[in-house]
Amino acid sequence: MPAYLALLRAVNVSGHNIIKMEHLRKLMAANGYNNVQTYIQSGNIVFELEETDKAKIAYDIKLLLYKEYGYDVVVYIYDAADLEQIIANNPYTDDVPEPSGKKKYFVVFLTHEVTPQGLDKMKKYNRSDDAFKAVGKIVYLKLSQSAADSKLTNAFIENKLGNNCKATIRNWNTTLKMLTMLQTVNE
């Protein structure tokens, strides 16, 4: 059975869109998702499902969350091959976790591909030593300081990319952990 990663945008952030992961695992299991696992509280879900249409899976989870919680949540769906490619494309680091402490490598998952105009806006208004590179629907970040000190936030990225593009950000260690979970979900 195929394994997937669902990333939920803007859940459990600053007291908004609260979803308890234990309840979410039970809800998904009751609705036909198999071997449901979550990682930390920021909406990272690994599961198995016979369905192979990722757009349909994302829509079905979005609908399930709306019916259960009343939240309109953007859902991103990836399989192990997708995540392997995302990790391999990172121009700033290899596929090794960052040591404990301040994190500087992040992956921004987008709903739309970055346009040249959006990329130009990000470059024009990024007034820090933070670096980024866009590859399709992914933006890789290398922050000079902490995420809290960076201008490259979800809101900044979405605003500069325009076209109703939505973003969710995961640090490098979480991204690597999600791949490990995907690869071992059915063991």
TrEMBL record:
Matching Gene3D superfamilies: bacterial protein sp0830 like, SP0830-like domains
For this entry, the protein name equals: DUF1697 domain-containing protein
Q: Which organism is it from?
A: Flavobacterium litorale
Q: What is the lineage of its organism?
A: Bacteria, Pseudomonadati, Bacteroidota, Flavobacteriia, Flavobacteriales
